[in-house]
């Protein structure tokens, strides 16, 4: 992706990246994002599930969603994805930081009309959320497809910013512990629904 003034951080620009080798893995690891846009002169910001297929990110919602119907008429949305890895504990509060990998992207939302692309977007999102589940589940029907709106935002303008590593060295007379406090977002052990009828947790969820 071509670097541009809008995608270059003014603070610590060396942490900024515009290559897909950095951007794509961050988008692929994040399950959720925040989508921001201007609607009727006011800023709005909404959390969303996100999946990437090739050079575009995909979203879905009910066809009754006011928000999604508005999206289709916008010229631009701004999407942010954040993976927070560690709190960086320095000797002074001033030098505390965060290890992170984040992406900011802009694009024009497009409603997906093509049946196959829409189907593949639902499949990719389901597999991202619950890996190995698509073929296990009741197959998606055309009626369900018709009730769901899928939107894609082509990846044309995006930046990543990455900070990794220990706290910056700091001289001081006082002995103060420094280091990293890891932050982890993990899938826990599956909890069976009360009406699951004794069906065991399938292998792909173990
Ligand atoms: C979890 C987390 C916590 C953070 N906490 C703080 C904090 O408390 N204080 C603070 O000052 N900063 C924090 N940051 C960093 C913050 O996101 C900005 O990078 C930083 O404020 C410097 O912005 P700037 O003035 O260089 O950005 P600008 O110059 O306004 O940015 C220009 C362009 O650079 C790119 N860019 C800037 N930041 C990012 C980013 N994070 N990810 C992807 N692209 C980016 C965008 O394309 C943006 O349009 C945090 C980041 C993360 C992910």
Summarize the structure.
By secondary structure, this protein is an alpha+beta fold.
Descriptive overview:
By secondary structure, the chain is an alpha+beta fold. The chain has a single domain (5-165, 176-183), classed as Electron Transport, Fmn-binding Protein, Chain A (Pnp Oxidase, Chain A, Roll), CATH 2.30.110. It contains four helices and eleven strands, in the order βαββββαβββααβββ. The strands form two sheets. Strands 1, 2, 3, 6, 7, 10 and 11 form a seven-stranded antiparallel beta sheet that branches. Strands 4-5-9-8 form a four-stranded antiparallel beta sheet. The longest helix has 15 residues, at 115-129. It is globular, with a radius of gyration of 21 Å. The mean pLDDT is 94. Bound molecules: flavin-adenine dinucleotide. Residues 6-11, 16, 82, 84, 98, 100, 102-104, 159-161 line the site of flavin-adenine dinucleotide. The site of flavin-adenine dinucleotide has 17 residues, from strand 6, strand 7 and strand 10.
Which parts are unreliable, with pLDDT below 50 for 5 consecutive residues or more?
none
Ligand catalogue: flavin-adenine dinucleotide
Q: How confident overall, as mean pLDDT? A: 94
Which percent range fits the helix content? 10-25%
- For the record, the CATH architecture stands as Roll
Beta fraction of the residues?
Answer: 25-35%
- Please report the distance between the alpha carbons of the first and last residues: 38 Å
What is the tally of beta strands? 11
